[in-house]
Amino acid sequence: MTLVASHMSKSFGRTRAVDGVSVTLSPGAVHAVVGENGAGKSTLLRMLGGAARADGGTMSLDGVAYAPAGTAEASARGVALVFQEITVNRSLTIAENIFIDRLRSFAGPLGFIARRRMRDAAQAILDRLGVRISVSADIERLNLGEWKCIEIARALSTSPKVLLLDESTAYLDHIEVESVLAAMRQLKTEGMTIAFVSHHLDEVRAVADELTILKDGHGAGTFRADEIEPDEIHRRMVGRDLSQGIYPERPARATGDAPPLVFEATDVAAGRDLGGVSLDVRAGEIVGLAGLKGAGADGLFAAIAGDQQVRRGTMRLGGNAYAPADPGAAWSLGVAHLPGDRGNEGLIADFSVLDNLVMARPPRRGPLFNRRAAASIARDLVARIGIKTASIDAPCTSLSGGNLQKVVIGKCLATGPRLLLLNNPTRGVDVGARMEIYRVIRQKAAEGLAIILSSEDMPELIGLADRLLVLRQGRIAHSFNATADLAEHEIVRHMT
Ligand SMILES: Nc1ncnc2c1ncn2[C@@H]1O[C@H](COP(=O)(O)OP(=O)(O)OP(=O)(O)O)[C@@H](O)[C@H]1O
């Protein structure tokens, strides 16, 4: 099915999120949409998928006018959209989540849902996607990437002709990314029309036939994917040359006394995943953690951040025994945690940018909230991290996904922590903004902050971490004492 969208526009108040953008999505082809955070990618996809009403422009499907009033109408016309944020309902089963809009189609003559049939159908879709998820698994125990796969399966359950994926790979580890990219290739050969948003040009180059670049709501060109070089894409997206690399220079290794130890874990076991890990982090150090989902990094962060009680082993912070009873206790002892899922854990979306930035440690004058000090902290962070927002009082619901991520980072820095736990800090963040964030992280380390960085992005670990630990099955499988000359495959080799 061919989806033609001409001169699409959408404003939010005075923000022209999408301004006169045209795209043509063709059957049997994958069309990537790339651009900086806030460039209008999600808004464009949402209009195509019926989740946002266009202010201007026209669309057609195989030549027939198409102006969906909602996602249900789009779906009935054969267009399915996977949203950027996680929308899985944790109180439902995996199969119910996949068929959430069509539960009734599994109802028998007496109105009971034929659960077995629904489960089999759900499993068939997951298998088609190539991901190893069993429908009988407990949904609460799945990780973010697996939830994302359930959402993609939900989109496929309607047998769409057009599939729109908004940053669906951002939550996946590299094995899941491979599965989803392979599924996209397969769907393409079956004649599906596919559009997807990604900040990873390697993915774009791996599967896309065409790509459209958005810049500040405008179309900045549509190209055949094999006809444009990554540097040129970056230049058009960001408006500057990034070929010099996006990682800040590493400081020379200090000679003389080693900086003080900030954090030590000895044989720490916690939850389901963490089997016994020892590590230490010194002031000014960035220690990287690599590993597949469930390999232990999330469990380790949960233990350090006070989200999960330690089953065995000990932790020390600044030389003192450290066993936070809950996340509040960890924050107040100077441990800031940037969670992997900003939607569920990091932000209160209805609150303003200011409120979210200072939430973890609101400045006070006596017993009262000091709004003037809070505004000054918020303004400083907005400028330093480059948060694109109409004002510090705008609600976080008005920010694009990548800018939300920057707010979570700002929130962590605002507390002046001594240990910072970063879980995929640049998930969904565009390359230009990533560069800014890396600069801030490096600068904070230079000021003495101890940082543990867990990431699914191998180049990020190599580019930023001073040392790297590879986790496998809850334990440290390998340590690299330097990362400057590491190749991705050397890390991956220890992960599986
Ligand atoms: N509901 C909303 N209310 C107000 N402004 C909004 C709303 N949704 C989006 N915007 C604004 O529209 C612009 C485009 O946002 P959009 O989410 O489409 O960007 P994006 O390219 O998908 O970014 P990202 O890569 O960060 O996800 C941004 O300036 C954003 O702040």
Automatic annotation (TrEMBL):
Pfam families: ABC_tran (PF00005). SMART domains: AAA. It comes from the Bacteria. The keyword DNA damage does not apply. Residues 3-241, 256-496 form the ABC transporter domain. GO terms for molecular function: ATP binding. SUPFAM superfamilies: P-loop containing nucleoside triphosphate hydrolases (SSF52540). InterPro entries: AAA+_ATPase (IPR003593), ABC_carbohydrate_import_ATPase (IPR050107), ABC_transporter-like_ATP-bd (IPR003439), ABC_transporter-like_CS (IPR017871), P-loop_NTPase (IPR027417). Keywords: ATP-binding, Nucleotide-binding, Repeat, Sugar transport, Transport. Gene3D superfamilies: P-loop containing nucleotide triphosphate hydrolases (3.40.50.300). Coiled coil: none annotated. Belongs to the ABC transporter superfamily. PANTHER family: CARBOHYDRATE TRANSPORT ATP-BINDING PROTEIN MG119-RELATED, GALACTOFURANOSE TRANSPORTER ATP-BINDING PROTEIN YTFR. This is Ribose transport system ATP-binding protein.
